[in-house]
Each structure stands twice: as structure tokens, then as C-alpha cells.
Design brief:
With 428 residues, this protein is mostly helical. It has a domain of 77 residues. The protein contains 26 helices and no strands. Helix 8 runs parallel beside helix 11. The relative contact order is 0.04. Keywords: Ubl conjugation pathway. This is U-box domain-containing protein.
Length: 428
């Protein structure tokens, strides 16, 4: 089709820009020939939408064709990008017009402007659920990954978002990972803008619902930048990073990588002094790290996590309280191979350990239910607190070699300390 010819008004025969075609009787007749079904659907409903459809059709058959001049293709992609930006009905029209297959080759364009326009146009089109299958069928995934690796900063960000949208189709997640999307997404975690990091994090989280993609993310070195992002508080990246870390901790390689990258200290620090919402994500990640790994539980105790976990179990959100209590329960569990007693009489030592452990847990229950919500006289409350603290001090000196009881003592001491602050505030 001759570009010069189709860019003339059918009624007046005057040259016009394809995105500025006016609605008139001649246009109506021409549109009816182009697509009778669309004409019947939209002629009496929304003339603006139908004019857009006619313009899109012209662009698809003329400006986006393989024989079109580079400038014409660049301009056409930019126009479609703008047309698809806001209205769902226009996105649907673009999808059925055949423009999607014509946009895909531009994803590999050496012209950065044309590539960016094509990426963004496909991103906008992918917001319409019906278009996602068409974009996938047009073979856009691999070219989008290419744009993610080689494009401008905005092109990379928008390619990540487009892949996120396409990953809404579950079958696409494995394909996106296999096409090499994960390494450039990991690169965005370090070198991208704040928005680019957020887009990469969200896309990684969606892709890592597939186990093979978890393995790819760990192999691509995702854990180190994720741990680093935990410290970037206030930007929204910290929460997303912890969610992705929790996902990667679902496999053994992921747990090992998080520990090696210093993830446990970073997460404990967040529970200690992070914002309320970030504390919740941190305890979820720690729970995932420790659920099936006694070694990580020991590292968590060594890192001093018990006091902040106890505090979170008392003052966090309902979900955070539940997760913190669950994690504390894991830390209380007897380690495989016994309680670690070095006595020459293991049976007696084991009995002593069980007795003292149950005593401490009883004291813990008393403090949790009686001391923390105490509303009685200040003197009586302090007497209870001092008595409990004295008992704990004696126990700590007596059972220094019992690792399991030591953990329980730490929990009780933390509750007493929390109770001290609670009472001070209550009677102030």
C-alpha cells in the first residue's frame, strides 16, 4: 500500500497525518471497507475510538511494514505507544488490528528511540489481558529480553514491566527465564534507578514462583544485591527485596547464598529498628530461612535475634506476631543429637535439662500472661519482676552449658525486659 496515498483524506484528498485523520462520510465508507465488523461495533458507539482504529490500521499496513522507511516506523511506533497509553478499548483495537507482530521486529532495532517506543507500546498493550496471548504468540519474549539487555534505561525498565505483565500467563514464566531474562533483571538491582529496581524486583518475584527460575536467580548472583537493598529504607525497595529473598530461601541453594551474603544480620537489624511493615517482611524471610535448617537457627540465636523477636511477638501486626511466635517456637525446639550437655551422666543431665527447661517455660508463660499486662500496684509489679529476674540470673549461671535452656532463658529475659518497659510506661 502506498504510504502517500493512504495518508490522504478519502473525502477531500488532502494529505493528513495518520494520527490526525478526521471523521467524515468518506472516512466512514473507507473504514467500512477496512473492517466491516469493527465498523458495525464502533460506528454508532465511539467515533473517536473508531478513528483511532483506522489510524492504527493505516500505520500497521504502511508505516510499520518491513519496506517502510526507518523514520516512518519510528513515528508509527511512537504513535501507537501514545494511543495505547490510557484507554483499554483502544488497546483492544490495536491488538486486533495486527499491529503487535509489526512492532516486535523493532525490539531489535539499532535505533534506540524506535526500540524504546516499541518496548513501551508493547508494555501499554500488555495491560489489556486479551493482548498478552497475542504478544506471546508474536514471539515477543526473546526480543523483549534483548531490549532488557541492550536498551536505554527507560527501555530496560519498560521491558521489565512488559515481561512482568506477560508473566501473568503462568506458562510464560519458565519461557521468560529460559530466554535469559533473569541476569539483566539482576543487573537492574544494582545499576537501575529506583523505579528500575522496583520493576526488576517485582518481575523477579513473579518469575521465581517457578523453582528453575529460583535456581537461575541464585546462579545469576541475585542474593548479594537483594541483601544490599534491605538497607535502602524508605524507598519501597527494601520490602520488595525481602519478599524476593524469602522466595529464594525456598531452595537450599538460596538459603546458603543468603547466609553467605550476610542476610541474617541484615534481617535481624531490620526487626530491631526498621519500620513496622518492614519488620513483618523481615520475620517472614527469617522464618523461611530457618524452617528446615537448624544451622540457620543457631546463627539467628548467635546474631541476638531473640530480644527483637520477642518484642515483635508482643507489639507487631497480627501477621508479624504470629510469624515471630512461630520462629521463636523453632528456636525453642531441641536440636537433633541432644541438648549439648557434656556431663558424664547423659541421662541425668537430660532429665535435669528437661526439668529446668519446663520450669523456665512455665516462668515465661507467667511473665507473658501476668507481668506484661499487669495493672496492679507499681510496687507489687516490681516485686514480681525482681523475683523473676533473680530466678533467671540463677538459672543462667547454673545451666550455662545447656544450649536449649539458654535459648529459653533468653526468651524469658527478653520478656522480662519488655515487661520492665511496659510497666514503666503504664505507671508513668
Amino acid at each position: 500500500m502506498d504510504v502517500a496515498r493512504v495518508r490522504r483524506c478519502p473525502e477531500k484528498a488532502r494529505a493528513v497525518g495518520w494520527a490526525n485523520l478526521g471523521w467524515n462520510i468518506g472516512m466512514s465508507s473507507w473504514a467500512k471497507v477496512l473492517c466491516p465488523a469493527m465498523f458495525q461495533k464502533y460506528n454508532q458507539i465511539d467515533t473517536a475510538v473508531f478513528v483511532a482504529y483506522c489510524a492504527i490500521t493505516v500505520a500497521n499496513h504502511a508505516a510499520l511494514g518491513p519496506d517502510a522507511a526507518p523514520d516512518a516506523r519510528r513515528t508509527a511506533a511512537a504513535r501507537i505507544r501514545l494511543l495505547a497509553k490510557h484507554r483499554s478499548d483502544i488497546r483492544e483495537l490495536i491488538g486486533v488490528s495486527g499491529a503487535i507482530p509489526a512492532l516486535v521486529p523493532l525490539l531489535r532495532s539499532t535505533d534506540p528511540v524506535a526500540q524504546e517506543s516499541a518496548v513501551t507500546a508493547l508494555l501499554n498493550l500488555s495491560l489489556e489481558e486479551r493482548n498478552r496471548s497475542a504478544i506471546t504468540a508474536a514471539g515477543a519474549i526473546k526480543p523483549l529480553v534483548y531490549a532488557l539487555r541492550t536498551g536505554t534505561a527507560p527501555a530496560k525498565q519498560n521491558a521489565a514491566c512488559a515481561l512482568l505483565s506477560l508473566s501473568g500467563i503462568e506458562e510464560n514464566r519458565a519461557t521468560i527465564g529460559a530466554c535469559g531474562a533473569i541476569p539483566p533483571l539482576v543487573a537492574l538491582l544494582s545499576a537501575g534507578s529506583t523505579r528500575g529496581k522496583k520493576d526488576a524486583l517485582t518481575t523477579l518475584y513473579r518469575l521465581c514462583s517457578a523453582r528453575r527460575n529460583k535456581e537461575r536467580a541464585v546462579s545469576a548472583g541475585a542474593v548479594v544485591p537483594l541483601v544490599h537493598l534491605i538497607g535502602e529504607r524508605g524507598s519501597g525497595t527494601s520490602e520488595k527485596a525481602m519478599v524476593v529473598l524469602a522466595s529464594l530461601a525456598g531452595i537450599v541453594e538460596g538459603r546458603d547464598a543468603v547466609v553467605e551474603a550476610g542476610g541474617i544480620p541484615a534481617l535481624v537489624e531490620t526487626i530491631e529498628d526498621g519500620p513496622v511493615r518492614e519488620r513483618e517482611f523481615a520475620v517472614v524471610a527469617l522464618l523461611q530461612l530457618c524452617t528446615e535448617c537448624p544451622r540457620n537457627r543457631a546463627l539467628l540465636v548467635r546474631e541476638g535475634a531473640i530480644p527483637p523477636l520477642v518484642a515483635l511477638s508482643q507489639s507487631g501486626s497480627a501477621r508479624a506476631k504470629h510469624k515471630a511466635e512461630t520462629l521463636l517456637g523453632y528456636l525453642r525446639e531441641q536440636r537433633q543429637g541432644g541438648g549439648g550437655c557434656r556431663s558424664v551422666e547423659p541421662v541425668a543431665a537430660s532429665s535435669l535439662a528437661r526439668y529446668m527447661s519446663s520450669s523456665i517455660l512455665g516462668l515465661d508463660c507467667f511473665i507473658s500472661k501476668q507481668l506484661l499486662p499487669a495493672s496492679g500496684p507499681l510496687t507489687a509489679a516490681h516485686n514480681v519482676e525482681n523475683l523473676a529476674y533473680s530466678i533467671i540470673t540463677i538459672l543462667l549461671k547454673t545451666i550455662a552449658g545447656q544450649s536449649m535452656i539458654s535459648i529459653n532463658c533468653q526468651i524469658v529475659v527478653s520478656r522480662v525486659w519488655l515487661g520492665r518497659h511496659h510497666l514503666s510506661a503504664h505507671f508513668a
